[in-house]
């Protein structure tokens, strides 16, 4: 004899099977793995829409009116299960692009729409960054740790041009505005967007820059969503661009290798280049060419040389240049100073009594090429005092 509880379970199972068939005939569902939300489209409609609480209740009402007993919880459980196929908008777009014709250099055509003060390095760095952007979007183990930055006059279209890098199909995955690295919702944007544009980088203070540098190296974002029950790991997908009306935007004397800075002189805002064709070439490069889209040590030296014109003036750096000569251990009249001793000498000679960071002094000394030697267990810089 079938127990009442088992009989009830069988009835519920049959009802759910009938409900699935009903929904299959009327709707198409997909689960967006970037936003972790379910979307719905009636068979007669063209576009998907977010499945929100209002629509879930409407579906429940529709089913009940058609004599299918179910609760909101039943519908919600069904639509948050593997009944709904997963969908990755980035993979779907990039993998379905037409094959590149292997002749037209669409990437170079895009590069030519911007004229910078260092066009050779811009063309070199931008191509690397663009390929890395696509790799970061579709590959689980790739993170684009460089940010493309335009400086230049106000109103020349820096932000507009960067927005056009996002193909029409993926416009919903572009964010432009201010990012707070400690903000949960801002962190989640790293897993939900293709491109994040940061306005007016010159307004960032040193602490914000350091937090941002940490953010752009993240490969995984660990957060609990507003409607979630647990902290989960999300794969980083977004790449970064930024702009400023001022050139002096880099604060750190070292560690600027993640910033691809270029001063734009003119920008063609009305270019009609088909971004689908640009990205078809990018996909060819990514899949069929042995293209190095990351920056190695040699590349970093080239970037640092380019970035010199974008560094903010630093009093500590100027003081070191004024007071010390770069020498080797075999030179005459040399002294061995620790970072703290260098600070004390600077304060004495420059009548400066505010706090100076030994870490910052160490970075400057290293970046300037001052040699070090271990003296009685402590590392000291080899210097000669300027007269």
TrEMBL record:
Organism expressing this protein natively: Flavobacterium nackdongense
Record InterPro entries: P-loop_NTPase (IPR027417), VapE-like_dom (IPR007936)
The name this protein carries in UniProt is Virulence-associated e family protein
Show the coiled coil region(s): none
Q: Where is the Virulence-associated protein E-like domain?
A: 97-307
One Pfam family of this chain: VapE-like_dom
């Amino acid at each position: 004899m079938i127990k009442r509880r088992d009989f009830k379970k069988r009835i519920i199972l049959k009802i759910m099977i009938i409900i699935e068939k009903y929904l299959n005939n009327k709707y198409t569902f997909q689960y967006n793995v970037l936003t972790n939300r379910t979307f719905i489209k009636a068979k007669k409609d063209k576009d998907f829409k977010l499945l929100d609480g209002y629509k879930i209740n409407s579906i429940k009402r529709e089913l009940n009116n058609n004599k299918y007993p179910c609760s909101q919880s039943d519908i919600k459980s069904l639509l948050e299960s593997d009944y709904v196929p997963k969908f990755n908008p980035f993979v779907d777009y990039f993998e379905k692009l037409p094959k590149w014709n292997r002749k037209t250099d669409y990437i170079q055509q895009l590069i030519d729409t911007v004229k910078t003060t260092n066009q050779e390095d811009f063309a070199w760095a931008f191509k690397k960054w663009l390929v890395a952007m696509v790799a970061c979007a579709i590959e689980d183990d790739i993170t684009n740790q460089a940010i493309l930055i335009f400086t230049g006059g106000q109103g020349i279209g820096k932000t507009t041009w960067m927005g056009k890098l996002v193909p029409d199909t993926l416009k919903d995955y572009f964010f432009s505005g201010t990012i707070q690295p400690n903000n949960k919702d801002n962190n989640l944007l790293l897993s939900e967007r293709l491109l994040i544009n940061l306005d007016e980088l010159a307004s960032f203070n040193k602490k914000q820059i350091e937090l941002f540098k940490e953010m752009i190296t993240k490969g995984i974002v660990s957060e609990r969503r507003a409607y979630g029950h647990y902290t989960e790991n999300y794969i980083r997908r977004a790449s970064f661009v930024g702009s400023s009306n001022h050139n002096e935007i880099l604060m750190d004397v070292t560690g600027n290798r993640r910033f691809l800075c270029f001063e734009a002189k003119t920008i063609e805002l009305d270019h009609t280049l088909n971004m689908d064709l640009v990205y078809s070439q990018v996909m060819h490069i990514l899949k069929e060419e042995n293209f190095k889209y990351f920056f190695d040590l040699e590349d970093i030296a080239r970037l640092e040389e380019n970035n010199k014109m974008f560094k903010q003036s630093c009093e500590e750096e100027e003081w070191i240049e004024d007071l010390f000569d770069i020498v080797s251990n075999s030179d005459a009249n040399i002294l061995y100073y620790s970072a703290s001793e260098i600070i004390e000498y600077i304060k004495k000679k420059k009548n400066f009594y505010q706090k100076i960071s030994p870490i910052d002094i160490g970075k400057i000394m290293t970046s300037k090429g001052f040699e070090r030697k271990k003296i009685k267990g402590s590392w000291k810089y080899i210097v000669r005092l300027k007269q």
